[in-house]
């Protein structure tokens, strides 16, 4: 089990880079004041990991939030992703440069392939390996890659992905995929840890919330970390951003972690990586 210390604690990636295991996701945060303030609030509260993507259309605001915060860029782990339309070798290199320009930065900490696109993703990955070798990005990885997507990609990689960001919550555990990634040295990361708000309807989470004196959200986020899974809950509300991070003064018992694992029903709230049309 990995050590969970505080909001600025990290998990070490397979290339030695330390990735803060708790961050702010900005999916659906509007560009401009909403995302600028969310990023500033998070960083000034102690967050050190911000996750965006070109398709979110808010990289400009993320960059402004980083710049306006009280934290040095070098101390912040900034993530973005290449969108499906931009996959391919040359187009990925351009998409990366475009993201950097919007962010107003000269490097990224992590760049991800947003969704698997078959052979095109292999060309995308070759471009990402080049960006990594040129030190324009400190780590590279994928998002929404099932085991067979990873196995296919790994047949032609020089560099093993450092991260796989997946939909992950009590109704979608995918323990086999977590184990596969762990065995390959690929850090697992959660998106949609709150099941689009549906966690608040789960009776077990209400009971555990009472037991630990925490909210359902805090129970789930703590479970993520104790599973060794990086997590990036999204919010643009300051109080929620602060509340989400209040998970370092308690620890779930092994039995309670297993109870949450037992809620798994292989249910998605987002698109299926094996069946999407964008």
UniProtKB/TrEMBL annotation:
The entry's substrate-binding residues are 114
Is the keyword Repressor in the record? no
Q: Where is the NADP-dependent oxidoreductase domain?
A: 30-264
Q: Where is this site: Lowers pKa of active site Tyr?
A: 81
Q: Which Pfam families match?
A: Aldo_ket_red
**Gene Ontology molecular function: any one:** oxidoreductase activity, acting on the CH-OH group of donors, NAD or NADP as acceptor
Q: Which keywords are on file for this protein?
A: NADP, Oxidoreductase
Top-level taxonomic group? Bacteria
Active site location: 56 (proton donor)
Q: Which InterPro entries match?
A: AKR (IPR020471), AKR5G (IPR044500), Aldo/ket_reductase_CS (IPR018170), NAD(P)_OxRdtase_dom_sf (IPR036812), NADP_OxRdtase_dom (IPR023210)
Q: Reply yes or no: does the keyword Oxidoreductase apply.
A: yes
UniProt record similarity statement: Belongs to the aldo/keto reductase family.
Q: Specify the protein name.
A: Aldo/keto reductase
What is the organism of origin for this protein?
A: Flagellimonas aquimarina
């Amino acid at each position: 089990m990995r050590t969970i210390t505080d909001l600025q604690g990290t998990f070490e990636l397979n290339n030695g880079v330390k990735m803060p295991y708790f961050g702010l996701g900005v999916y659906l945060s509007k560009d401009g004041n909403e995302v600028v303030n969310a990023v500033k609030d998070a960083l000034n509260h102690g967050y050190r990991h911000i996750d965006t993507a070109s398709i979110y259309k808010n990289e400009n605001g993320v960059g402004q939030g980083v710049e306006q915060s009280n934290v040095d860029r070098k101390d912040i782990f900034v993530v973005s992703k290449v969108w499906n339309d931009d996959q391919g070798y040359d187009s990925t290199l351009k998409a990366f440069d475009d993201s950097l320009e919007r962010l107003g930065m000269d490097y990224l900490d992590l760049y991800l392939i947003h969704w698997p696109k078959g052979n095109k993703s292999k060309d995308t990955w070759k471009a990402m390996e080049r960006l990594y070798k040129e030190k324009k990005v400190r780590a590279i990885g994928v998002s929404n890659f099932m085991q067979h997507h990873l196995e296919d990609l790994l047949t032609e990689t020089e560099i093993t992905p450092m991260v796989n960001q997946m939909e992950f919550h009590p109704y979608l555990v995918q323990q086999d995929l977590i184990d596969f990634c762990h065995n390959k040295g690929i850090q697992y990361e959660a998106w949609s840890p709150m099941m689009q708000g549906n966690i608040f309807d789960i009776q077990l989470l209400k009971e555990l919330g009472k037991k630990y004196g925490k909210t359902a959200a805090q129970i789930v986020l703590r479970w993520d970390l104790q599973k060794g899974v990086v997590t990036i809950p999204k919010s643009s509300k300051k109080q929620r951003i602060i509340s989400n991070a209040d998970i370092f003064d308690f620890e779930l018992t092994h039995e309670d972690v297993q109870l949450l694992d037992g809620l798994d029903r292989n249910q998605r709230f987002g698109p299926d990586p094996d069946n999407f049309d964008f």
